[in-house]
Every structure is written in structure tokens, then in C-alpha cells.
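Weekly structure sync, notes
Attendees: PL (lead), two postdocs, one rotation student
Agenda item 3: pending single-chain targets
PL asked that the sequence for the first pending target be pasted directly into the notes so everyone works from the same version. It is reproduced below exactly as submitted, 334 residues in total.
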Amino acid sequence: MKKILALIAVTLIVVGCKQGKNEVILPSATGNINRILVVMKGVDWIGKPGDEIRKVFGEHQVGLPQPETLISVSQIDPSGFSSFIRHNKAILLFQKSDTNKVSVIKNKYAAPQVIIIASYKTKEDMINMTRERGKEFMQIFKDEDVKFVQDIFHKERIDHTQLSTVKELGLDITIPSRYRLVQDTLNNFLWMRHHLQNGIARGDGSNNILIYSLPLTNEDSIADNITKVRDSIGEKFIPGSREGMYMITEKAYAPFTYETQIDNKKAFETRGKWEVKNDFMAGPFLNYTVVDKKNNRLIVFEGFTYAPAVNKRDFVFELEAIGKSLKIKENSEE
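Predicted structure, written out during the meeting:
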């Protein structure tokens, strides 16, 4: 866990960025992924405006065994928003104004950094702005975190051209080098695993990546068949410790499927929990099923985590960043 956080946390290295013709040197931002700093008066934080922020930003991430919020939030009074505190990489700043307005500023005090400035006239406006645009704020922060993690992984990516499944399917994907090959079959099935050797999830804990393809038959039935497909893949390729054991979708928890886009193509995002049939192993999974109409097929990326008794949100987020880096080359053919 410490190694993961060291890679995805922003360190205090000085970096350069250009603004206009002048080169401005900014310190690197501080803070970990999925965490934001709210700049708001203390009296508002313990009052109704703070209650609304905790309500909106306190939504739980679906598909996790233990309740975990989408984003962790901390607060500081505007009087304390100075010096190194301003180097936080994700800031939601509320400020009194004569107009209600939202502005997004990047790399103002540090880099990479995103600051959402929520200007409001009254406390009621502050509450309404949070209620009406809070999910939009969360998505801005999340998208920046994905880009940030992908940039780090790109610097340490494995040579995916050496993976036969990725090569045969004509894909490009950023997988960090700490992932090791488990299986890469001639029938286009890839399984890679990162053993969590450090931190609170060390030992048996692991993050896993699966990539495979399926024929595109009926586009209208894709979402309905995702669970059935992943169960058949689990039975064929993901065995348990004894005969008759293999990975399946947890029966007691219905997965959530949403339409999204991967590589500017229609895709389905599914979050849920997996378990091993006739065993006690279980954990969260994230599945992206991408519609590749040009090649009349589906490309499936799945990540699943096994980290008993610890929070798993950030592990799954790492898998999300890897999955969202997937691209289908224009000249790809099966």
C-alpha cells in the first residue's frame, strides 16, 4: 500500500510550467487521490452548507464490500488557506461575491492542481450550488485524478507489445511495470497481477487485470449479458484453490451497470463484487465492455481486487485509471 500511495501521491518536487511567454516554476501539489480540500468558514462547515457538502460528497462508491465514500473531504477556514496549504492538488474554494459563479482554475499555486472556485451571494446560494452542481464538481476532481495516475503509470509502463493478447487484439493500454503476467493465451485472454507486498494489504492481497474479446452479436443485449459472460470466463480461466472452485459474480449483490465511453467508443461500466464458488474469497470488480463496431467485437477490460479487511476504494481506482487508458488501434483486426 505504501508503494502505491508513494506513486499516486504528489511529491514535493519542483516542476516547470509555462504561462504565456514567461516560464513560471511551481512546486508540485500535495495530497493523495480521491481527496479534496474544502475552503469554507468554520461556522458554515458545521452548519447547513457543510451538511450539504457532506451529503453530496459522502455518497458511497458502489461495488465495494465496505462502505467508502467516492471522495474524502477535509476542511480549512479561509484564514488558514495560505503557504503550503495552497499546494493541495484538489481544492473546492467557497468565496462570498456579488454574483453566483463557478470557475475552474488549474495549476495556480502548484502542479498538477485543480481549484474549483464557487462564488456565492448568500448561504442559501452556497447550499443550492452544492446541491445542484456537487456531482459535477466531483467528476472534475475524479477526471483530474485519473489523468494524474495515468501520467505516473505511463512513465513506468510495461512494454505491452510483448503481450500476445494485447498485440493480437490491436490494443494500446498503460499497465504499470509492477504487474506480472499470470496468463497470456493464444486464444486472446490476458491475466496480470500485482501482489500488494507493502502496507496494510500486504501478503495475499492483489490487484488483477483481465483483457479478452468477444464477438459482437446483439448490441441491445450487451449490458444484460455482462454478468453471464464474466462468470463463464471465471469458470474457464480463474480457478480457486481446489477443483470445483472458480471466480463468479457474488450472488447476494447485484452489480451496477452504466453506459460510458472508452476511447471515444460506446462502453458499459459494471461495478460489483466477485466471490470464489464454494470458497470464502471475495472482493470488488470493475468491468469495461467496449463496443468495437469496426471489428464486430467487444473488448473487455476487467480489474478485480483481493485485499481482505482493508478499504479498497483506491485499489479499484488504480484499476479504473488503467482501464480508461485502453485504446483500440485504427488498423486493428482480429
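Discussion points:
- The radius of gyration is 22 Å.
- The chain has two domains: 7-154, 159-328.
Action: rotation student to compare against the earlier draft before next sync.
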